[in-house]
Design a protein that fits this description.
about 30% helix; binds cytidine-5'-monophosphate; two-stranded antiparallel sheet; Rossmann fold; alpha/beta; eight-stranded mixed sheet; about 25% strand
Length: about 230
């Protein structure tokens, strides 16, 4: 009896020492004081992962773009707006984390110049925006990975396995959760998803359609094996 209590408290202790850094939600890239570029990310999977990880006893930091969701209790929560802000916060928490899970829909492009005043539609015919690349946060963290576990996500319209394997290699990941973008099925929000998990050694596992809550549990279950 005594021994199993000791084993249980040791497991809880070890888990608590594991720090999971999770990003979620969309970033917003401002055009002027009232307009921005963004994407359809809702943050559901990232927030669910944070909630489940906390339940398992991990220390959790959730860095999120603006969503409609409430941060799970007990999780350190950092709200950001742009990709650059998310990058700055990830860099801040990365050194103390054991695992980074990047579910965020980070915008790939941002306007070259953010106008200080609202752009007046009356003064323009068509508006042409010049965009530049945002930092690829996961790629940058992959370069300074050390002994950490890195998990990324990919939405692809074609050549799912080939593109996903390439992404995993390029970003130096341990696990990539790949999803095909299908015509009449949104992957955003509280939906069922069917994904392929691709491991560092190139092996992959097809996960039958499941809720995001189930997927979060599957992903967290993988962490100890990576
Ligand atoms: O290259 P792609 O955008 O498909 O990669 C998706 C993965 O990379 C996701 O895990 C996403 O959070 C992350 N990402 C990032 N910084 C970007 C774009 C994507 O960290 N600028």
């Amino acid at each position: 009896m005594k021994q199993s209590v000791y084993r249980l408290s040791r497991t809880i202790y070890l888990k608590r020492r594991l720090h999971l850094l999770i990003t979620a939600g969309p970033t917003r890239e401002p055009i002027d004081p009232v307009r921005f570029i963004s994407n359809y990310s809702t943050g559901v999977l990232g927030y669910t992962l944070a909630k489940e990880a906390k339940k398992k006893g991990y220390k959790v930091t959730l860095i999120s773009g603006i969503t409609d969701l409430n941060p799970p209790p007990g999780v350190k929560f950092v709200l950001v707006n742009t990709a650059s802000e998310m990058y700055k916060e990830v860099k801040k928490f990365f050194p103390s984390c054991n695992c980074l899970i990047m579910t965020a829909g980070v915008c790939d492009f941002q306007p070259v110049k953010v106008k200080r005043e609202k752009i007046k539609k009356e003064s323009l015919g068509n508006l042409v925006l010049r965009l530049k690349r945002t930092p690829d946060i996961l790629y940058e963290m992959g370069k300074r990975k050390g002994r950490r576990t890195l998990i990324g996500f990919a939405l692809e319209t074609d050549n799912l396995l080939k593109n996903a394997k390439e992404k995993l290699r390029k970003k130096n990941l341990d696990l990539l959760v790949a999803q095909r973008l299908e015509k009449n099925k949104t992957p955003f929000g509280n939906t069922e998803v069917s994904v392929i998990l691709i491991h560092k050694d190139g092996s992959f596992q097809k996960i039958p359609p499941c809720s995001k809550s189930r997927l979060a549990k599957i992903i967290l279950g993988k962490i100890k094996f990576l």
